Amino acid sequence: MLLYPPGEVYQRGEDRCQMNVSSSVANSLRACNDLGYISSVLKKENYGIFLKDYAGEKLSFNDFANDFKRENPDVVVISATTGSIYEDINFANEIKSLKNDIVIILKGALFFNPPEKLLDQLNLSNIDYLIGGEVEFIIKDLLNSHFYNKENLEKIEGITYLKNGQRITNKVIRFEEDLDKLPFPDRTIMNNKLYKNPLTNKPMATISASRGCSAHCIYCLSPIISGTKVRYRSPQSVVDEMVECVEKHGITDFFFKSDTFTINKDWVLNLCDLIINSKLSGKINWVANSRANTIDDEILSKMKQAGCSVIAIGLESGSEDSLLKMKKGTTVEINKKAVELIKKHGIKTFGFYLIGFPWEDNEHLEETKKFIFKADTDFIEIHLLVPYAGCELQKMINNKNVHILGEDACKYHSNGTDYLTSKELEAFKRSVTLRYYLRPKYIAKKLLDADMTPSLFLNYIKYGIKMLKNLLFNK
Question: Cα–Cα distance between 361 and 118 in angstroms, integer?
């Protein structure tokens, strides 16, 4: 059984981000590609597979227990996140009470080359294996070794397991270079209708295009869990997967999962040319992420022609001081020009911001607020900083009282900055987000969007209600 457990909805297939989608404003749930890859790989080894996103489908533990009783699995694989890790472990413990000899595997970024101090904080007595490496390249060897030759476990990078009562971690030393050798995620077993493009309300497939990032942002997991060398799928492989989505599953909306989709201009132009000259041309709609210093007129023009409708861009802050200290590699002016350039090509913009760095005070937040309204992107999401285990940021603040991490490396929240409390950060996020989305100018602009349809209008209303609920009533 491959599953996302019941409970709050997290971005479990995104080891880099892992955001709580339930409490976000404008983000939507993305497809469970991590489980889909596992299914495709294991089906080739003749394993029987059952897959379900219990959180996404708003199902309960009883729903899971009924499935579990009917399927009677030998192995359960749970996709875990840092924010939900304690709940995920409790869920695993409940599974063990249903069937004592079940093999339980937890996968997640938290277990990438984990220090003993971190693992000691967790009750892992009912967990057989932890996977912190790229699960799709590991799972086949792990299960075959478990069932047929446990001596081979010591050769598998990226796993933690018990041997003679002792916990062993095989660290990730190298990353798999050939991404094309992976089969496509198994969408025959996913509930594809669950994962929708919020702008069209149509099913949206996630396409993993590349892995790794050469940037050095102090808060980001990507260089750690995916490497600093960017590894690409071939553009043709990406197009072939999109064609399969259209022809076999009727999916025409896509999200390109890349740490930075536009970091290699030649690769992007090649992909766009293939799309434009394929049967997909004029029939698809897609979203990608970007960095402000990786785009120009040529690349944006080609992306628009190939069907790109939205670019999500990590703008992070309106403070030059913060951008410099977080090692973003951009400036306020570069970010401003990037947003203007995207808008010029008729592509919608989604601006992401981070607040809560240890050095930030009211002046930093005020600069960010001014930039948010000046940039005037189509959508915004303000995140409170999460100091993930392993990031430079966590090492920087580990001996401070600013964040609750020295005692517990699995805590998922900030306790404020050197100058601001967590309540002040939350109040800033709530105030700015509400003010931004409730502007008469913004609402009028959305109502007058050329592509606005009745169904899209209703979808905007749905997200508006979600925003108000999360910002006004959730504590």
Answer: 30
Q: What are phi and psi of 371, to 5 degrees?
A: -70, -40
Check residue 340 and give its pLDDT: 98
pTM beyond 0.85: the answer is: yes
- Do 233 and 147 reside in the same domain of the chain? no
Percent of the chain with pLDDT over 90: 74
Which residue has tokens 């299914």?
39
SS3 455: helix
Rounded distance, CA 391 to CA 170, Å?
Answer: 20
Instruction: Indicate whether 106 belongs to any domain.
Output: yes
- Residue 136 has phi, psi (to 5 degrees) of -65, -25
Q: Which of the four pLDDT bands, split at 50, 70 and 90, describes residue 117?
A: confident
Residue corresponding to tokens 């890859």: 37
Which tens digit of pLDDT belongs to each residue from 410-460? Answer: 554 556 788 999 899 999 999 999 999 999 999 888 877 756 667 677 777
CB 315 within 8 A of CB 371: yes
Residues 271 and 396 reside in one and the same domain: yes
The residues, ordered by sequence, that sit 6+ positions from 123 with a Cβ below 8 Å of its Cβ are: 89, 93
The per-residue pLDDT of the chain, averaged, comes to: 91
- Contact 202/59 with Cβ under 8 angstroms? no
Task: Give, in degrees to the nearest 5, the angle at Cα 52 between 49 and 57.
Answer: 165
SS3 321: helix
- Strand, coil or helix: what is 403? strand
Q: What's the domain count of the chain?
A: 3
Q: Give the span between the Cα atoms of 314 and 197, in whole angstroms.
A: 19
Q: At what angle do helices 454-468 and 422-437 cross, to 10 degrees?
A: 150
The string of pLDDT tens digits covering residues 167-177 is 999 999 999 99
Token pair recorded at residue 303? 């992306």
182 by Cβ neighbours in 10 Å (0-12 / 13-18 / 19+) ranks as middle
Share of the chain above pLDDT 70, in %: 94
What distance in Å separates the CA atoms of residue 83 and residue 106, rounded to the nearest whole number?
A: 14
Q: Tell me the β-bridge partners of 105.
A: 77, 129
Indicate if 248 and 388 belong to the same structural domain: yes
Expressed as residue numbers, the domain containing 96 is 2-170
Q: 386 and 469 in one domain?
A: no
Instruction: Give dist(CA 433, CA 414) in Å, integer.
Output: 19
Q: What is the CATH number of the domain that holds 124?
A: 3.40.50
* The length of the chain, given as a count of residues: 475
Selected residue with higher pLDDT from 297 and 27: 297
d(CA 65, CA 79): 17
